[in-house]
Amino acid sequence: MRRAIFPGSFDPLTLGHYDIIKRGITLFDELLIAIGVNADKKYMFSLEERTKFIEEAFKDEPKIKVVTYEGLTVDFCKEVDANFILRGLRNPGDFEFEKAIAHTNRKLSEIETVFLLTSSGKSYISSSIVRDVIRNGGDYTGLVPDTVVVK
């Protein structure tokens, strides 16, 4: 079975993430959306909210499971028997950052990283931009799936 994880904080899930996930499921038998938990990080949305956003967005996709994890991504891959890490690239800066992580992960384990370029119409979207729009009362609805609801 070709099992991959798509790790991230998903704070919140964006249309960029959604794009990578929808295209990624065509490459793998199972795709685990792995929400990383970092006790030192301050999130806008709770873990429960982020999980719900993703589960609702992909409720009709049987090949997708939403999970949470702590620690090294490669250790989690071993734990869930995933051979691939899926990552999205928006720009050259993402590539340089993700390349270094992919090389490190490959050095630590046999995990392969698969990169997909974010669709051009979504490459400007990031979770940090979405959070800034939300904090300042802007219209964020064109940046996130319908399942992302701000209270």
UniProtKB/TrEMBL annotation:
GO cellular component: cytoplasm
Main location group: cytoplasm
Amino-acid positions noted as binding substrate in the UniProt annotation, renumbered to this chain: S9, K41, T73, R87
Binding-site residues for ATP, renumbered to this chain: S9, F10, H17, G88, L89, R90, E98, K122, S123, Y124, I125, S126, S127, S128
Key words of the record: ATP-binding, Coenzyme A biosynthesis, Cytoplasm, Magnesium, Nucleotide-binding, Nucleotidyltransferase, Transferase
Required cofactor(s): Mg(2+)
Reaction(s) catalysed by this chain's protein: (R)-4'-phosphopantetheine + ATP + H(+) = 3'-dephospho-CoA + diphosphate
A biological-process GO annotation: coenzyme A biosynthetic process
EC number: 2.7.7.3
Compartments it resides in: Cytoplasm
Function comment: Reversibly transfers an adenylyl group from ATP to 4'-phosphopantetheine, yielding dephospho-CoA (dPCoA) and pyrophosphate.
Subunit organization: Homohexamer.
Family listed: Belongs to the bacterial CoaD family.
Protein name: Phosphopantetheine adenylyltransferase
Organism: Flagellimonas pacifica
